[in-house]
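User: I'm putting together a teaching handout on how multi-component assemblies are represented. Below are the sequence lines for each component of a complex, exactly as they appear in our records. Could you produce the 3D structure of the whole assembly as structure tokens, so the students can see both representations side by side? Please keep the chain order the same as the input.
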Amino acid sequence: MFRARHLLGIEHLSPQEILAVLDLADRYVDLNRRTVKQSDALAGMTQINMFFENSTRTQASFELAGKRLGADVMNMSVAQSSVKKGETLIDTAMTLNAMHPDLLVVRHGSSGAVNLLASKVNCAVLNAGDGRHEHPTQALLDALTIRRAKGRIQRLSIAICGDIAHSRVARSNLILLGKMENRIRLIAPPTLMPAGVGEFGCELFDDMCKGLEGVDVVMMLRLQRERMDGGFIPSEREYYHRYGLDAEKLAHAKPDAIVMHPGPMNRGVEIDGELADDINRSVIQEQVEMGVAVRMACMDLLARNLRADRGAKAAGVMA
Amino acid sequence: MLLSLHKGTAMTLFLENARIIDPEGDTVTTGNVIIDAGQIAAIGAASAPKGAQVIDCGGACLAPGIVDWGVKIGEPGERHKESFRSAGLAAAAGGVTTIIARPDTTPAIDTPEVLEFVTRRAAEASPVRIRHMAALTKGRDGREMTEIGFLLDAGAIAFTDAARVTTDAKVLSRALTYARSLGALVIGHPQEPGLSKGASATSGKFASLRGIPAVHPMAERIGLDRDLGLIEMTGARYHADQITTARSLPALERAKANGLDVTAGVSIHHLTLNEFDVGDYRTFFKLTPPLRSEDDRLAMIDAVASGLIDVIGSFHTPADEESKRLPFEDAASGAVGLQTLLPASLRLFHAGQLTLPQLFRALSLNPARRLGLPQGRMAEGAPADLVLFNPDTPFMLDRFTLASKSKNTPFDGARMEGKVLSTFVAGHQVYGAAS
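Assistant: Of course. Below is the structure of the complete assembly, with chains in the same order as your input.
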């Protein structure tokens, strides 16, 4: 069912492949809740995490996922590596490739950098976020969280709010939720709404209260100040006033609507701190839990394809 | 096979049975052409003069050689990317008989001394003619105009800061005013640099999906509007290097109708490719300005057909592998084009969008005319700069067969039609395809 060699983006996945990941991830959720959280799905395999952008949460999640599946996990901290000495991305990739890793988890600040890297190595590559392009495991873990909270991942009304222009999370979610036939509403100040996004078949709002009217799911995004070159919004307090999620604005959504956030949160900028901690509405902690399970599922599926691929090649050599 | 440089006096040649393309007369006729003393001596003669070397064209097309306006050559500074020799060889193989070179070298061509150096180097090394544009401001910094008078005397054919926009309107207006008094032609790059800063794609659905920083096409119109305002103010002669979006066309049309001395060009890539060709971050398709929508591409073809856009060029920009094998945002911008300009242009002919005389009007006649060169015409007395080609020969482009030192072509692996058989410069054959 899951045929991909790499996981570079949601764009390349079919709805069946998405469901295959979610179904397997559900089983890993159960495993992760046991005391002995061990599987041998990746036994003997080597996983390298290459994070060209700083990350604590995602890197920890991938590291834990790999270790629970029995892989040898290495974290390459780019701050101490040859990348700082002027080595190009491809040279770094080729060097690592020569060490025969089986899974390469990559985060990079430029859109498309992970695609470029994947074309040069012969192991499975997982995109852990590239520029403002895609962050597929985040979209998959969001889908799993929604499915477990709402019982389905189809025919829901879902609002994505905030800094959409700079967000790879928004792009991956937009594609995934669209593929699964949901109604998507994008809510953002016009300066943070990417061009041409209306053509993706979603509704656009710059008034948050109208946009949240009757939705099942509210996905908040982090205001990505590090990607902004100034002047997208007048001030954080005005942004919070107009686009920060608080109880008053959330009252426009369905009474059982859930609140999501990919983290890390800027409390008081895009979300009210109390609301974020409200266990009746917020599923932000569940998202983190689902993250490990989804990443285990993705790596397991890719490793299966990698083994099948290598097996086929070996059979070809013998024949 | 490449033949020797054109030294000494040329032989008398009799080119028989050619489809003669005359962009001035807008005709295609079958006949013979006599070349003597480096010039076209007669068109339509019945028989060869005594002692002439007879070349049977076998019904292939004979057109004025291409005048490619806006070519980047790596000398001085980046000879590993392109030298006068390699650019000249690529030009000869592509039917380009005159290269109009850009001054965005390292250092910039902004003094008569540098200009004299590159002029001498070019004459020694290149089988085709090379003329140089000079920088409009010192160091292309946009602060102080260059010695426009001295540079004209030293042979500068026009003045431009290439893709760097002179943001200070006062500096530009003074340079334009000064250039006007000398009759110098100034070439602008219409773009609002504040809007296009950091962008490497055209804004829209595709760029948003790929997450590439993008610029709205209006940035080009705003840049053009400003330049045209300054032209109206100063009365200078102006050429917009590349017009690539439909939004710029009404402004250009109005300026021409109002009698401003304005012309415009477009790159062959913007006539044959669109934004979707970038696909999965293919950096050979990263250009300046970025590739546009399909609607824009079609509008540009119409504008060339109507004559609103005067010139088609390759905007040949060599880039080495290292500068292209990077994430899209970080990769160098530009593509080589000297050798693919003709076959790519012939796509427009084969699609029925432009006739052969229309094509060579934009490739040869108009650029030569605008730059005050005698080339580009199929007429008695004109320089015998000619290209003989078969427009129908199909081939698959392999970028490693290109003569350029840099192989960054967006047409790698593309199916193309049109093969150059021979290229003549001043009556000398500088390229002949191996039979």
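A couple of points students might notice: Confidence is low (pLDDT under 50) at residues 1-5 of chain B. The radius of gyration of chain B is 21 Å.
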